[in-house]
Amino acid sequence: MASKRFVGAMAILAFVLPIVAMATEFTVGDDRGWTINFDYEAWAKDKVFHVGDKLVFQYTAGRHNVFKVNGTAFTNCTIPPANEAIKTGNDVITLATPGRKWYICGVNDHCANYG
């Protein structure tokens, strides 16, 4: 089940609030960063994400990457075309719309085999 994937898989929920708030920057995985064998579901559980917040994916370039995917691709670990990967090692994604967001790593078998 995708919600139990600890590697390169994360789902978050962003909300829109009627008040204007300063954007918050979240380092995905905190000190661990975007890595393998980490429970991103637990990491995101107690956080409140808002439109305008920034997700920072930190990792060693070449060892991981980030794909923004839909829920079906997340569940099935369907890796998009390589040219859609974000892969700098310090990737910033601004939450532009409310709702669930899904991210996976497409390097090797990170998404499919670490859950």
Mean pLDDT: 85
Structural class: alpha/beta
Query: Beta-sheet strand percentage?
Result: 25-35%
As for the CATH topology, it is Immunoglobulin-like
User: What is the CATH superfamily?
Assistant: Cupredoxins -  blue copper proteins
Short description:
The chain has 115 residues and is of the alpha/beta class.
Question: What are the defining features of this structure?
Answer:
115 residues, alpha/beta, Immunoglobulin-like, 3-stranded mixed beta sheet, 7 strands, 14% helix, globular
Describe this structure in words.
The protein is of the alpha/beta class and 115 residues long. The protein contains three helices and seven strands. The chain has one domain (2-113): Cupredoxins -  blue copper proteins (Immunoglobulin-like, Sandwich), CATH 2.60.40.420. The chain has helices at 40-45, 71-76, 110-113; strands at 9-15, 25-27, 49-50, 54-58, 67-69, 90-94, 99-104. The strands form two sheets. A four-stranded mixed sheet has the order 3-1-7-5. Strands 2-4-6 form a three-stranded mixed sheet, with no helix packed on it. Residues 1-7 have low confidence and may be disordered.
What is this structure's SSE topology?
Blueprint: E1 9-15, E2 25-27, H1 40-45, E3 49-50, E4 54-58, E5 67-69, H2 71-76, E6 90-94, E7 99-104, H3 110-113
